[in-house]
Amino acid sequence: MIARILAALATLAAATAMLTGPAHADVVICEKWGSTTIQGGRYVVQNNNWGDDTTQCIDVTDTGFTVTQAVHDKPQNGAPGSYPSVFAGCHYAVCSTGSGLPMQASDARFAGVRTNVTFRYPSSGVYDAAYDLWFDPTPRTDGQNTGAELMIWLHRTGSVQPVGSRVATVNLAGGTWDVWFGNIGWNVVSYVRTAPATTIDFAVDTFYGDAVSRGYAQRSWYLTSVQAGFEPWVGGVGLAVDTFGYSTGGVPGDTTPPSAPGGLAASGVTASGVGLSWSASSDNVGVVGYDVLRAGASGAFAVVGSSGSTSFGDAGLSANTTYRYQVRARDAAGNVSAVSNTVTVTTTGGGGGGGCTAVYTQTGSWGGGFQGQVIVTNAGATATTGWRVTLTFGGGQTVTQVWNGRTSQTASPYTVTSETYNGALAPGASTTFGFLGTWTGTNPAPAVSCARTP
Predict the structure, then answer these.
(1) Counting beta carbons within 10 angstroms of the beta carbon of residue 366, is it exposed (0 to 12), middle (13 to 18) or buried (19 or more)?
(2) I want to staple 201 with a disulfide (CB 3.0 to 4.6 A). Which of 116, 135, 390, 434 is the partner?
(3) Better pLDDT: 223 or 299
(4) Active site residue ranges
(5) Long-range CB contact pairs, 190-193, < 8 A, 24+
(6) pLDDT tens for residues 182-228?
(7) Which CATH architecture describes the domain 351-454?
(8) What is the C-alpha to C-alpha distance for residues 195 and 193, in angstroms, rounded to an integer?
(9) Is the pTM here over 0.70, yes or no?
(10) Fold matches, 8-247 and 351-454
(11) What is the CATH number of domain 254-350?
C-alpha cells in the first residue's frame, strides 16, 4: 500500500546521510545511511536502509551496485525496507557534481534532461525496481522535497503497490503504464509498467509533462534529483543496477561561477524575523537560485535557506539578538559565487501583545503573482481566543485572496485576523493561513508581526 514513505524518513535521512568518499570498483557499504560517489563524483550511490534495522550491504562498482546482503521481511501492505539507489543531483545535502540540478521545469533546458538504467533482478524476493524523481517548489538541495515525487516502476513482485490509488493507464516511453496518485505531505505520482522491463531510456519530461497535465505537478517546481534503485520488502540479495546514465540540456563543462550578489539589505526587522533583499547575480549560462547564510554576532556562517528570487524572509529568530547575513548564487552546473556583502541586524525586544509568533513562507511564484503561507503559533502559557498577523510588504505587492483568515485592507500593511474555527490555540499549538498576491518589479518577503487575543 505504501511505497518509500514515512515522514520520519525526512528527519532521519537529513540527520544521518553521509558521503564516504570517492568510489573505486567493488567498494562495499553496509552503513545504514552510507553513500559514496562514482565516476569522479558524477553520481552518488546510497545504501539508504531507511525502513529496516536489519543489515543491508551493497557492492559498489563504477557503473552501479549490487545488493549483496539483505534479510528484509516487511509486510507487503506497508512500507519497504530500504531504497538502495544511484542518483544525480542533490538528496538531503549530498550532491553529485555537474548535474545542473536543481533545474526549474519551466527552463528550456529541462526538455533535454534524459536518463537511462539497466536493472538486474534475482529469482526470489519481493521488491519493486523504480526511478524516484524529486521535485520541490524551491531549488532545494537539502531536506524533504514537498512538491512531487514521481516513481517509475519497471518491475514489481509480490502484492506490493504504490501510494494512493490507480487513476489512469497511459502509453509513454515505449511502454504501457498504470498511473497511481496519492499525497503523503507531497504528491506521489507512480507509473507502473504493465509488462516488466529491465532497461529504459527516457526524457524526464515525458513523465513529468503527464503529471503536470493531470494537475499533480507544476512547471514552476524544480527537479532536484534523478534516482534509480530498488524498494525491497522481502529479501533483496541480487538486486543490481548494472548501468545508470544521466544527461542535461545545460552547457557541458560549465565551470564559470555566477557573479556575487550585490546590495544585500535588511528590512522589516521584528522580534522573530527579518526580510532580506539583494541585487541579482549574472552568469554565463543562468542563475538557478541563491543560498542565504546566517551567523551570530560572531562565529561561522551556515546556510539557513534558499530562494529562487532576490528576496528571503528569515523567521524563528530570538528577540534582542544580533545576526549577520550573506547571500551567494548558484548556477545550473552547481557552480557557487563569492558571497555578497554582510548585513547585520538586531531583532527587537518583542511586545505587541506577546505570546504569538508568525512565520512566513513563499510557497509559489509565477510571472506577476505569488502564493504565501503563514504559520501562527501560540507561544504563551495560556490558550488564545484569537490572533492577528500584520504583513508589511516593501515591494508594492497586493494581497488578492486570503484563506483560513480574513482581512479588510486593500493595501500594505495587511492585518489578517483569525477565523472563528482557528482562533483558539492551546499553548504551543499552531494554525496556518494562506494568501495569493500580485507583484511588479521585485517581491521581497514581508515583515511579519503577530499579536494574540488572551
Answers:
(1) exposed
(2) 116
(3) 223
(4) 149, 231
(5) 190/3, 190/130, 190/150, 190/151, 190/152, 190/153, 190/162, 190/163, 190/164, 191/150, 191/151, 191/152, 191/153, 192/153, 192/156, 192/161, 192/162, 193/152, 193/153, 193/154, 193/155
(6) 999 999 999 999 999 999 999 898 899 889 888 999 999 999 999 99
(7) Sandwich (2.60)
(8) 5
(9) no
(10) no
(11) 2.60.40.10
412's CB contacts (< 8 A; 6+ apart) are 391, 392, 393, 396, 397, 398, 446
What residues does each domain of the chain span?
8-247, 254-350, 351-454
Structural contact between residues 443 and 345, judged by C-beta atoms closer than 8 angstroms: no
The residues, ordered by sequence, that sit 6+ positions from 128 with a Cβ below 8 Å of its Cβ are 3, 80, 153, 155, 156, 157, 160, 230, 231
pLDDT at 169 over 50: yes
Q: Categorize the per-residue pLDDT at 363 as very low, low, confident or very high, splitting at 50, 70 and 90.
A: confident
Asked whether the beta carbons of 388 and 450 are under 8 A apart, the reply is yes
Q: What's the average model confidence in pLDDT over 295-310?
A: 78
Sheet strands (E) in 212-321: 222-235, 240-247, 262-267, 273-279, 287-295, 302-307, 311-315
Ranges of beta strands (E only) in 137-207 are 148-156, 165-172, 175-183, 187-193, 199-203
Taking alpha carbons only, the member of 290, 382, 384 closest to residue 331 is: 290
Name the strands in the sheet holding 398-403, side by side, starting at the edge strand that comes first in the sequence: 356-366, 369-378, 430-438, 398-403
Q: Would you state the pLDDT for residue 348?
A: 65
Distance CA 375, CA 273 (A): 13
- The residue to which cell 538528496 is assigned: 91
pLDDT score of 47: 96
**C-beta separation of 65 from 55 below 8 A:** no
pLDDT of residue 249: 59
Residue pLDDT, tens place only, 7-54: 334 333 333 333 333 334 469 999 999 999 999 899 999 999 999 999
Give the span between the Cα atoms of 442 and 89, in whole angstroms.
29
The CATH number that domain 8-247 falls under is: 2.60.120.180
